[in-house]
Design brief:
elongated, 143 residues, 67% helix, mainly alpha
Length: 143
C-alpha cells in the first residue's frame, strides 16, 4: 500500500485549499459565468478551501503551525469534507461542468485520507503499529 508522508499531505492540503479558494475566478473565466447554480459553487468552494487551510495549519504534522489536531482526527475530517464535496453537486443541482470536478476532488480527498501516515516523521518509531488511517480502521474492524 502506498503510504503518503504527513509532510506531503500538508503541502497537498495547502495547494488543494488554494485551488478551491480560486475556483470562482477560474470558473467564471472558463465558462463566461453561464453555469446553472454557479452562485452556490462560488460561495461553497472558497469556504471549503478556507476550512481545509485552517485545518491543515492546526494539525500536528510538519506543515502545521499550531499543532492542535492529531493526524487521525485530521483524516476523519478529510473524509467528511470529501464526502461533502461529492454530495453537494447533487444536493445543489450544480452544472455538470462543476459537478464532475467536485466529485473527482472528493474521491481524491478520500484516497489521500486513507493512504496518509497517521504520525508525522518526527513522532514515528519503528513498530508493528498500523501506519495509515486505513490500516487503523482495518485493525479496529478485526477486533
Amino acid at each position: 500500500m502506498i503510504r503518503i508522508p504527513t509532510r506531503a499531505h500538508g503541502i497537498m492540503d495547502m495547494v488543494y485549499s488554494a485551488a478551491l479558494m480560486a475556483a470562482p475566478v477560474v470558473l467564471k473565466a472558463v465558462t463566461d459565468g453561464r453555469l446553472k447554480n454557479q452562485g452556490t459553487a462560488n460561495k461553497l468552494l472558497p469556504t471549503i478551501g478556507a476550512g481545509i487551510l485552517a485545518q491543515g495549519l492546526m494539525t500536528n504534522h510538519e506543515t502545521g503551525a499550531v499543532k492542535a489536531i492529531d493526524m487521525k482526527t485530521h483524516m476523519a475530517m478529510d473524509l467528511g469534507v470529501s464526502a461533502l464535496m461529492m454530495a453537494v453537486p447533487y444536493i445543489a443541482k450544480l452544472d455538470n461542468r462543476i459537478k464532475y470536478p467536485m466529485i473527482a476532488l472528493g474521491v481524491i480527498g478520500i484516497g489521500l485520507a486513507l493512504m496518509t501516515k497517521t504520525k508525522p516523521s518526527y513522532e514515528q518509531a519503528p513498530t508493528e503499529e498500523p501506519d495509515t488511517f486505513l490500516e487503523h480502521v482495518e485493525k479496529e474492524a478485526t477486533k
